Please model this.
Amino acid sequence: MKLMEQMILKDGKVLPGGILKVGSFLNQQIDTELLAAMGEEIKRLYAGDHVTKILTIESSGIAIAAAAGMAMQVPVVFAKKHKTSNVDGEVYSSVVHSFTHGTDYNVVVSRDYIRPDDRILLVDDFLASGSALEGLIELADAAGAEVVGVAIAIEKCFQGGGDELRAKGVRIESLAMIDAMDDDGGVSFRPQPEA
Amino acid sequence: MKLMEQMILKDGKVLPGGILKVGSFLNQQIDTELLAAMGEEIKRLYAGDHVTKILTIESSGIAIAAAAGMAMQVPVVFAKKHKTSNVDGEVYSSVVHSFTHGTDYNVVVSRDYIRPDDRILLVDDFLASGSALEGLIELADAAGAEVVGVAIAIEKCFQGGGDELRAKGVRIESLAMIDAMDDDGGVSFRPQPEA
Model:
């Protein structure tokens, strides 16, 4: 998605250690024109796939999931993060390792909101190691629902999680795919098919 | 907003202690047809007020703020919750008391994303005691920005926060205003002017 790449080049900030700051347009502050375009692009990518529900994870996935859900006219469910594993039987739960913070946390979602006949589209802002995504896939699996695919705003391909999941057969559509980031602030994108 | 009242009556669950569960359509799972209608209604309510930015608080305010921001074509900023007061000089910060959890937490937002010339619309899912809203008003005040008003999905009028803020001159538009909830599950709404 050219608009996303342009926004990253224009307003993203590359920090040492493979960190990309997009707080001015994607998280913390959200450019709603970009957000609406992302919703439409995700709708286009998964048109005809009979998605029944979008599943995301709090907090920074919610706006993107909401935009996609409104465009696709399907409900959005967001999994919550919990520090403790003290969850009851009314939820599905999985453990996610945060490489950023070096800790584990639980993602939980009520059993009421994912059904065996759901065709789930997973949505998140970033894909790096893929551990958050694996947690969401586990939640959908636990519910017996089918994961139709994944839609990501920005994939950091150089961290490998996306290609590992693709190798396992997961369909992943990332609106911008970053192959490399230089310490001097340069960003190179993986070429993508045009719409 | 009749649609919101209807959803509360149809799918909301009243629990003892003044708790209203709306997880099936407003938080955790989000009805995106309702969400889009909320965005349009908030746009209608604040048409002509020259809102430049929407400010909300993670997590459950984000989807509503995103819908309103897309409808009104203004950026959305979300304040983050922090347990510690260990915040640096690059953010505005205020303390919020959670009556639900009996604890205090900090809400912070980067100084880059609220400007003195901003005309801010505050958006959140619930208004009860009003403490989260007071925290957001403090953030906007600290930035020297003007708070044009507030848009809330569901106000629990019987908890008093909304009317206290109105008495201080804050404009508050709530899409559903609950005057009373009975232990047997009954909900009565405060009459509102029709669109």
About this structure: Residues 32-45 of chain A form the longest helix (14 residues).
